Amino acid sequence: APGSSGRAQVSTVGSVGSGGGKALLPVRLLMRSRSMLSILSAVAAGSIAYMVPFVYLGPFMREEVGLSLDDTSWAISLMGIANISGRVGMGWLADRVGRMEILRASVLVMICAALAFPHCTSFGAVLACVIIPYGCVSGSFIAMPPSLIAARMGPEAPQALGAIVGSNWLAHSLGQAGGPPMAGLLLEASGGSWVAVMVCVSVSFGLSLLLLSCAWPSVEQHEAEMARLRQRVLGGDVEGEGENEGAVGSASQAVAPCEAP
User: I want to staple 194 with a disulfide (CB 3.0 to 4.6 A). Which of 20, 61, 86, 118 is the partner?
Assistant: First the structure.
């Protein structure tokens, strides 16, 4: 009958609306979580400096150390190899020591390498103070944040992995896009001062470390926050479902006079 089909269509719309809200629950919790916001802020701050040593290692070694173009290419390749091996090694350590502890230690090592960068006057010094340490730990700055967030999310993590990884790479991309150009402008404005550039790199990493140390909530704070967020988000969904049910009832009453007697 026309009236019954009308009620079925309205009921279907109401059920789809309420189900869609519950399906987005993990992402909504994620984007309101203090853990997520602190990690994204730290990643964005550190990513401004992250690519600067990779980009400017070659020019520095040609100008200050006196290496040829071929030798500089080998040095940059060594840094990339150290970055790959460091990701595996730091992941192994993180499973035993703790992800956040490894991430903080990695940022601290990158600060020390950046400060040592302009004072290296030989290939051996650059290799020992910049290429090996920075290369080995910088990979964990890229790979560790998503696993940290997923571990904190708990049962909602599998449904929010896309949002976790996407948000992490967005923060990285924004910082990496602006860091090297700003370093180049600073290098020109300072008359070719590598010290000025690397001090700014260290400040950027220092802000990232500060956010990781101060803004990252404890497990107890995180669990209490997630409980409040779940209650708030689910409460909003329940109110939305009540409104949908009210709309269905009103529509049913409007359709009822059209039914056959």
Answer: 118
Side-chain half-sphere exposure of 251, counting CA atoms within 13 A: 18
Tell me: the pLDDT tens digits for 95-109? 888 888 899 999 999
For position 134, what pLDDT does the model report? 92
Q: 117, 121, 128, 146: which is closest to 54 by C-alpha? A: 117
Instruction: Please give the Cα distance from 58 to 61 (Å, whole number).
Output: 5
The SS3 call for residue 218 is coil
Residue 183 to residue 201: CA distance in whole angstroms? 8
- pLDDT tens track for 16-66: 344 444 545 566 667 777 777 888 889 999 999 998 988 888 888 888 888
Cα-based distances in Å from 102 to 37, 41, 187, 260? 19, 18, 31, 72
The answer to whether the predicted template modeling score (pTM) of the entire model surpasses 0.85 is: no
Contacts of 211 (CB under 8 A, 6+ apart): 38, 41, 42, 45
Separation CA 114–CA 108 (nearest Å)? 10
The C-alpha angle with vertex 129 and arms to 121 and 182, in degrees rounded to 5, equals: 80
What span, in angstroms and rounded, lies between the C-alpha atoms of 49 and 41? Answer: 14
H-type alpha helices, 117-218: 123-126, 132-153, 157-189, 194-214
State yes or no: pLDDT of 241 exceeds 60.
no
Q: How far apart are CA 183 and CA 47, in angstroms?
A: 13
Interval 200-213 mean pLDDT:
91
What percent of the chain clears pLDDT 70, i.e. is strictly above it? Answer: 75
User: 231 — phi, psi (to 5°)?
Assistant: -65, -40
Cβ-based burial of 20 (10 A; exposed 0-12, middle 13-18, buried ≥19): exposed
